[in-house]
Amino acid sequence: MKTSHLKTLAGYIAGLIFGLGLAISGMTDPARVLGFLDVAGAWDPTLVFVLGGAVVTNFIGYRLVLRRPNPLFGERFQLPTRQDLDGRLIGGAALFGIGWGLSGYCPGPAFASIAGLTLPLAAMLVAMIAGWFLARAVPTSAR
Amino acid sequence: MDWSATLHGLIGGVLIGLSATWLMATLGRIAGISGILGQLFTVRPQGDSAWRLAFLAGLVSGPLVLMLAGGGLGNVVGAPGKVIGEPAGGVALMLVAGLLVGLGTSLGSGCTSGHGVCGLARLSPRSLVATITFLVAAIVTVYVVRHMIGGGA
Q1: A23-58: pLDDT as tens digits
Q2: Taking CB atoms and an 8 Å limit, are A103 and B66 in contact across chains?
C-alpha cells in the first residue's frame, strides 16, 4: 500500500473514532451541551466526563507517541509552538463561546451531525464557513 | 445524577482522546476540527487535503454507523438510544451562532477539540486560556438567554 493511501486511511480511522465518540457521548445533541453550560438550571455534568475522559486519554497517548522521532506516516510532528497570549486568541475564544452557548454546537458535533441534517443545522454550517472566511479579513497586527 | 449518561460521556470521551492520539501517532497532526475543516475551505492546502477529507468522512460516518447499527448507543437527552439531537433554535439563531463560531475559532486558532482535547493534553498555556475563555463565554451566554431573557435556546 502506498504511503499516501495509508495517510488517507489513517485520517478516516481518526475521524470515524472521533465521530463515534461524539455520538456515544451525546455531544451530537445540542440539548446535552446546553444542559452542561446551564449552570443555573438543571445542570447536566455529562460534558465534564467527555472532556475529562478525552484529555486524560490523550495526555497519556501524547506522552507515549511523542517519544518517537516522527509519526508513522509523516515526516514530523506538527505541533503549535506559540506560548504568548494575545487579544486575537482571547477575543476569538470569547466569540466562539457566545456562538457555542447560543446553539449548543461547536464545529465537531455540528459537522458530525450531518447524518441528521436539519435546516437550522445547515444554516449553522454555512454560517460557520462564512465566519472562517470573514476571519481572514481581520488584520493580524493585533499580536 | 444520570449514571447512564455519565458512562456514555466517559466512554465517548475516551474514544475522542484515542482518536486524537491516533492522529498524532500516524500523521503527526492535532485533531482540531475547526482547523481541519476550516483550512480545507480557506487555505486549500496543496497535497494536504486528502487526509482532511478522509477525517471528515469518518467524522460523519461515526454517528451514521451508530444510527444504522441500532441498539440504542446514542445519548440524546430524554431519548435514550437516539444518536443525533434536534437543533436548539431556528435558522436565524443558527446563522448568528455559526458566524460567531466560525469567526471565533479562526481568530482564536481552535475550538473544543483543538484547544480542549489536544491543547490541554499538551499542557499548552494558550489552549488553557482559550478553553477557560470559551467555557465562561458560553456559560454566560446560556445564563443570559435562559435566565435573564427567558425562552430562546
Answers
A1: 999 999 999 999 999 999 999 999 999 999 999 999
A2: no
Q: At what angle do helices A119-135 and B33-42 cross, to 10 degrees?
A: 70
Q: Are residues B112 and B67 in the same domain?
A: no
Range(s) of the domain holding residue A37: 3-135
pTM comes to 0.96
Give the list of residues 6+ apart from residue A82 with CB closer than 8 angstroms, or none.
B126
Region A8-20: mean pLDDT is 98
Query: Do the Cβ atoms of A68 and A62 come closer than 8 Å?
Result: no
Q: Are residues B7 and B62 in the same domain?
A: yes
A32 three-class SS: helix
CB spacing of A15 vs B58 below 8 angstroms: yes
Mutate to test the interface with B, among A62, A70, A100 (most CBs of B within 10 A): A100
Contact yes or no for A58/B21 (Cβ under 8 A): yes
What was the ipTM of the complex prediction?
0.96
Residues of B in contact with A132 (CB under 8 A): 34, 38, 41-42, 102-103, 105-106
Q: How far is B72 from chain A (nearest CA, A)?
A: 9
Structural domain including B71 reads 1-86
C-alpha distance from residue A14 to each of A10, B24, B53 (Å): 6, 10, 11
Total domains present in chain A: 1
